[in-house]
């Protein structure tokens, strides 16, 4: 079948999906370097060509509760994100208020963040973009996030409705290299989700979902997303009967049309518990 024509801003690229470990054992992946004699991960990368659709101009039609993601305008008072203490003090507070206002939540608790800088000289301890598509929590691990971070209140909080939402923002310049891509939940089959045990983290036995390739999954990005535009995407939904989006697979991809001289990607992503 001939490939469908691309719309303005759409790109063809490769995404990395999941194939099960060939020996049949449960899938694992080490967060950091594995112990001597152990593989970093026991699954196989399945790299596929996909079309990634430009969401620019479609922002008003996308919803975190329907599609699993949305793109919003938001100008932050912070621009550099070099001071970790300032990030946790000022940016966290700014994002808590933003999420409360946007979602109508009674309470927002930001439990961590990650800054990615994909350029020479960023330092070996600074992570770059992740190209394997994934979801940060499994259906079970989402509840454990509350128990880990709010143990004294967990049993009461778990009686109510909550979500885990990530807020992703470029730093310093529009994104040309390694943009974020997100999947429309409506095109996803839950059978394509595979739990992977994350080892070597600071957290006891966390799991995430990797994604098997499915040609029906529709992928989006926001072309040349700027630091005044944020991507919100859902990683967990506590209501198992929820009729809309329960999560959003995401990752990064190489855009061959990006000008080589454009700045390398920098981004900050906060992860928040949202209690209604």
UniProtKB/TrEMBL annotation:
Database matches in InterPro entries: AsaB-like
Name of this protein: Methyltransferase
Protein origin, superkingdom: Eukaryota
Entry's family note: Belongs to the asaB hydroxylase/desaturase family.
GO molecular function: oxidoreductase activity
């Amino acid at each position: 079948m001939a490939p469908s024509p691309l719309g303005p801003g759409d790109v063809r690229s490769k995404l990395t999906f999941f194939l099960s470990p060939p020996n049949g054992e449960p899938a694992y992946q080490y967060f950091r370097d594995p112990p001597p004699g152990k593989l970093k991960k026991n699954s196989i990368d399945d790299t596929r060509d996909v079309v990634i659709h430009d969401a620019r101009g479609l922002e008003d039609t996308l919803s975190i509760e329907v599609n699993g993601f949305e793109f919003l305008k938001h100008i932050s008072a912070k621009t550099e994100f070099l001071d970790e203490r300032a990030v946790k003090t000022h940016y966290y507070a700014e994002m808590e208020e933003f999420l409360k206002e946007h979602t109508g939540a009674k309470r927002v608790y930001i439990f961590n963040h990650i800054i990615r800088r994909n350029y020479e000289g960023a330092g070996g301890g600074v992570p770059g973009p992740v190209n394997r598509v994934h979801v940060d929590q499994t259906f079970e691990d989402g509840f454990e996030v509350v128990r880990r971070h709010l143990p004294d209140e967990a049993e009461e909080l778990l009686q109510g409705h909550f979500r885990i939402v990530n807020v992703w923002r470029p730093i310093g310049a529009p994104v040309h290299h390694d943009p974020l891509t997100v999947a429309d939940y409506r095109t996803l089959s839950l059978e394509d989700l595979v739990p992977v045990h994350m080892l070597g983290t600071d957290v006891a036995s966390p799991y995430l979902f990797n994604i098997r390739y499915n040609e029906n999954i529709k992928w989006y990005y926001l072309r040349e997303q700027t630091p005044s535009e944020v991507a919100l995407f859902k990683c967990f939904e506590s209501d198992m009967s929820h009729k809309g989006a329960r999560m959003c697979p995401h990752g990064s991809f190489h855009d061959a049309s990006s000008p080589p001289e454009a700045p390398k990607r920098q981004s900050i992503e906060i992860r928040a518990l949202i209690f209604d």
